Amino acid sequence: MSNIFLAFAQTRTEILFIKKKISKKKELIWVPVNLETLLFYIENEMNFINPSKYLNNEIHKEGINGSEKMIKKFKFEKGLEFFLKNRYIGIQRKYFNSCFFIDEILKSVKKKHSVKEIFVSGWKNYSFVTPSENYFLTQILINSNFRKKVTILDNIKKINIRKIYNFKIDSLDFKNKNFILISNLGYNFKRIVFDLFNKDIKVATFNQEKLSWYKNLAYKIFGVRIIKIKKSISNKKTNINIPKIKFNFKNKDYSNLIEFRKKEILVELQELKNLSQIIKRYLNKNKPKMILLNALRGINGYLTEYSKKFNIPCLHISHGTLSNSKNKFCNAYNKVLSEELTTKKNGIFCIQSKIAKKFADHYRKNSTNIVTGNLIFNKSKSRNEDNILYAVTNRGFDSMHFFGIEMFYEYFQNLVFLNNFAKSLKNKKIYVKPHPTEFKNIPYLKKIFRNLTFTSQRNEILFKKIAVTISYSSTIIEDSLNSKIPVILFDQWKRYQHCESEKNLNKKNSAIYYVRNPKNLEKCLKTVEKSNNFNFHKFIYTKEETKNFKNLINNLSI
Prior knowledge:
Number of domains: 3
Helix content: 25-40%
Number of strands: 20
CATH superfamily of the largest domain: NAD(P)-binding Rossmann-like Domain
CATH topology of the largest domain: Rossmann fold
Low-confidence stretches: none
Structural class: alpha/beta
């Protein structure tokens, strides 16, 4: 069994800092924790641990089980609003996933090597606003079962918990009382604004950022009222209390790590509470006729609670793809995903596809659901090229999910195959669109995978160039279907089938196929190429089956 020295880092900057501090005599083996660090090690020909050789699907199953067991331990004070509980659970779940990943990779490495020393930068920083500025690897490792082997290269500075903000809305009066409140103008919500433009219904949205003059002008033309929220530093401390818990999982005590994270989260919870109070004051004077939400994370969660209390119709128009399965781990993943998109009881869930209907029938069977058809997914019509698109959801180290999302090293392995496969294609390209959080890595991906075409183009432009989409689990699945582009679910890990799909790769004209190995993917692409009458109606609604958005507004007495 060989002796090895390990090093961990979250960013390129942190890697360079550690390299500078360590004597060149020590041959380090680096452990990647995200796509950014993995690409750096490959690009610079550094020795690194390949997680795919040490981890398998068990980490996904155990990770989901572990986080659920942790959440059951949480106790909240009476009267704490649901949206604050939900936010706390969401952050702690992702933090646990990061901790569990580190623990599992170290345990697996230990089986093959003798770990003599582990080097970390000592950096600690916490930011909800800018996730890339979060540094917490040191904290995880000094609380791991390998803590005695950890060498800290920089003095750990106590994090100064950032100040809590108070909020203010200058004008509390909205002259037009016949308005719809929307959570934001992202995720194609602008389309809804255009749909309402010719009606006597105004749209309002809260905003804390400074908008350019042309955006302000455009919103004014289309009847959008921007409710500007200003913030100022508060001298008060948080008055939210969440009891400490004791939690052990797989012979590891996570109690201190959970408590450490809790102290950081309480600042955001207090800030959300302060923000909810000023929004409540505004809405009490200016009650909207309807509220539209594309997510429930953060303050949006408060809006769904407010709507229930005051009997205001609240539509959950999910920007994510939710499904249902007979596999308990698939369903557990979709339940986790849904926590930021809808609730089990409140609001009206807009069923935009037949995939979503299966989710709603299972998860919201006792709640109000309404079939609307596509409201905010992409709906490109024309295309003039026959290229291939590969697009999946990527998650960083600070926002890890298990099971229904591929890990960064799995994603990389898919790119290796596609890069080789692209060599055999004649007059076709394979476009790769990373998740927006990974756009920063496109220049480095281009250097390694020269046969692939990486892009950050908007879907409506990109979809004109492609004939088929390869994915795993992503909103790109429903974007593609609504744009009449067939989808191949590529799962060479034999782990997660996002939705009902065709497994007979010789059967033509299926809108969704499910493939478990690279050879079959090539075969499936040939079947798609021979098809000309895809059964999109099996997964998306036709106009005859749905109520369009304007009719929906009228039916809810706006």
